[in-house]
Amino acid sequence: MFIFVRMHSTVKKSRKVQIEEKATTLFREKGYAATSMRDLAQVLGIEAASLYSHIKSKEELLQKICFRMADRFFDAWKEVETEQNSYAAKMQKAAIAYVQVITQNTDASAVFFNEWRHLSEPHLSKFLSMRNDYEGRFIEIIEKGIAAGEFQQVDSKFMMLAILSSLNWTHNWYKPNGKLSPEDVANKLSNLILNGLKK
Amino acid sequence: MFIFVRMHSTVKKSRKVQIEEKATTLFREKGYAATSMRDLAQVLGIEAASLYSHIKSKEELLQKICFRMADRFFDAWKEVETEQNSYAAKMQKAAIAYVQVITQNTDASAVFFNEWRHLSEPHLSKFLSMRNDYEGRFIEIIEKGIAAGEFQQVDSKFMMLAILSSLNWTHNWYKPNGKLSPEDVANKLSNLILNGLKK
DNA sequence: TCCTGTTGCTAACGAGCGTTAGCATGTTTA
DNA sequence: TAAACATGCTAACGCTCGTTAGCAACAGGA
């Protein structure tokens, strides 16, 4: 057995982690409801019943994926709080932090954005309130930016939705091995948001 | 029996149309895979087996919803072709036409954007090629706008994705009876796209 | 009046679902 | 060496799935 975590490539992943990873991929590709435990078992080369030696339920997998992503987004926000110059700069930092989380976890992001509605209570409510919290942080930046005279006078909630939706979409096309780094993507997007398409 | 189509409110809808409408709502709320024919039958007050006097299969419902939306998007594009002034104006017209289709069909839009992957072949391929066609039209406007010196020099495909994603998101929050008209939404969004958030 | 179309039912089909029980094997830890 | 853990199996549970067969009631048009 290897010593725990030496290099990424040589880590022996626990079966549980392997299951979670394959589940993430499958949930992304086929959707949560359309992915069966037998599908999941098959890609791991075991029987469906064997999965239950490692996990509690199918939904537990979804919960792990969704709330782990939520944690990553909140963690990334710490970067935003360090920014003290302008609200434009703060918005840019928020976009960069956000896009970085997405591009570093494209499969989990897709599940996070598309499959959360299959969470049961009370997880669903918790998820929605976290999302609400996060969206509020973007609204706050926009509103303070308007008050400070930096931004156009726009409907802040409306603008938050437009901005986040273009950031959220990133997981659908971003290729981790492509020519664009997460920073490139985030910078291009925040440039579009702040300055628009026109010259 | 009423004469066919006199007023919206007094039209006697065929059972088939009623089924398609309820299916659209359910597919939107629960997702295609998680919606059962028994669910659908229940909201109509009939037995699941009775549905099959009117429709061929569950997937046929999804196909109808998806391709009817696709038709609406292509229809709406005719408006864009009439615009001859500037590429900014053309982009604005495209955004308006697009958002109008979405806001006038929020449930069907949600299904169109989220459930298309459950289409089987050859419908899936047809769907994807139509989407590709449509995206290409946005790319063309962006590229010609850049060539004409109207737009910043940006990656046109990247920009198309960012723009469409913020338009696509509209169905998630738009309230048909709210204070914003489809035109309002479209104008605000195209203003953001063209001019950005900054003053 | 007969025909055709619309609408709906009950009963049932084979298949797949998530999950549990109970057991076996090998590996690590004490 | 013994206990504990990790990993996997077969068999099966109760349930739901989409769908079909066959039949019945009623409407509108010829």
From TrEMBL, chains A, B:
Q: Which segments constitute the HTH tetR-type domain?
A: 13-73
Instruction: Summarize which parts of the chain are annotated to bind DNA, as ranges.
Output: 36-55
Statement: the UniProt record of this protein carries the keyword Glycoprotein: no
Keywords from the UniProt entry: DNA-binding
- Pfam families given for it? TetR_C_24 (PF17932), TetR_N (PF00440)
Q: Which GO molecular function entries does the Swiss-Prot or TrEMBL record give?
A: DNA binding
The record's listing under SUPFAM superfamilies reads: Homeodomain-like, Tetracyclin repressor-like, C-terminal domain
Q: Which InterPro entries match?
A: Homeodomain-like_sf, HTH-type_Tx_Regulator, HTH_TetR, KstR2_TetR_C, Tet_transcr_reg_TetR-rel_C_sf
The protein depicted here goes by the name Transcriptional regulator, TetR family
